[in-house]
Design a protein that fits this description.
Largest sheet: 5 strands, mixed
Distance between the termini: 33 Å
CATH topology: Nucleotidyltransferase, domain 5
Number of strands: 5
Radius of gyration: 17 Å
CATH superfamily: Ribonuclease H-like superfamily/Ribonuclease H
CATH class: Alpha Beta
Helix content: 40-55%
Low-confidence stretches: none
Shape: globular
Length: 172
């Protein structure tokens, strides 16, 4: 399974594709999609949409995971992230990717075991879990990889539980 993780933003969207097989995690590619603040919002969103479709077409992830919008103090920032999330969800739907959403609390819990982990703790765990020499930069990249790892673990756990339930149901 290859999971595309996304940390939405209008200026910077972090992405990371993680391969999960036989219980191991391996990074495939990670980085950011950026847009220029000098462009009108519709063109920034169009750029994000097209770059995301190109990424999907090039690396063929099998599932996608997106960080949910959390409560933001700044309404303008929340609206901006909301625009990016909408475009991202549209691109994933157009690409036919099964898409899952996780709150920052769920991601932190899955990565560190503690829902109130610091940014630094999260980044270090992403580095360790993927066997990277350095923490991916900027923060948006580490966040996107964390979302992908969260989904890989959540999905594999759900499959194991389902198989165990089926096995238990077939026993006399």
């Amino acid at each position: 399974m290859q999971v595309l993780g996304l940390d939405p933003g209008t200026a910077i969207t972090g992405y990371g594709i993680v391969r999960f097989d036989d219980g191991g995690l391996k990074p495939v590619i990670y980085g950011v999609i950026t847009t220029s603040a000098s462009l009108p919002l519709p063109l920034r969103l169009q750029h994000l949409y097209r770059e995301l479709l190109t990424l999907i077409d090039t690396y063929h992830p099998t599932q996608a995971s997106v960080e949910e919008l959390f409560f933001a103090r700044n309404a303008r920032t929340a609206l901006s992230v909301g625009h990016a999330r909408g475009v991202i969800l549209l691109a994933l739907a157009d690409a036919g990717l099964p898409t899952y959403e996780y709150t920052p609390l769920q991601v932190k819990q899955a990565i560190t075991g503690y829902g109130r982990a610091s940014k630094e703790q999260m980044q270090q765990m992403v580095r360790l879990l993927l066997g990277l020499e350095v923490i991916p930069q900027p923060d948006d990249v580490a966040d996107a990889l964390a979302v992908a790892i969260c989904h890989a673990h959540s999905f594999s756990t759900a499959i194991r539980v389902s198989r165990n339930s089926e096995d238990a149901g077939s026993k006399p």
